[in-house]
Specification:
Elements: H1 2-16, H2 27-44, H3 46-56, H4 60-70
Helix pairs in contact: 2-3, 2-4, 3-4
Protein name: Splicing factor subunit
Organism: Diversispora eburnea
Family: Belongs to the SF3B5 family.
């Protein structure tokens, strides 16, 4: 009974949150989710974005813009899937 409950909770989380993955998630999709989550966290936390802007000698707005641009394709072009 516990196993069914655990699987039910896992399926609910996977349907609710995209980044948790599922049985058919490949390595590329997993890495894209990880990179996008990281960039979203950097943009959302002012201290982190300030750190990056000082380290790169750029304005905060420029660093935010670059991170948003990188969120489009953080790991390059997608790998063709064999279906």
């Amino acid at each position: 009974m516990d196993r069914f409950n655990l699987n039910s909770q896992l399926e609910h989380l996977q349907s609710k949150y995209v980044g948790t993955g599922h049985a058919d998630t490949n390595k590329f999709e997993w890495m894209v989710n990880q990179h996008r989550d990281s960039y979203a966290s950097y943009i959302g936390h002012h201290a982190l974005i300030s750190y990056f802007s000082v380290a790169q000698n750029e304005s905060i707005a420029r660093v935010k813009f670059e991170f948003v641009e990188k969120m489009l394709q953080p790991c390059g072009m997608p790998v063709p899937r064999d279906e």
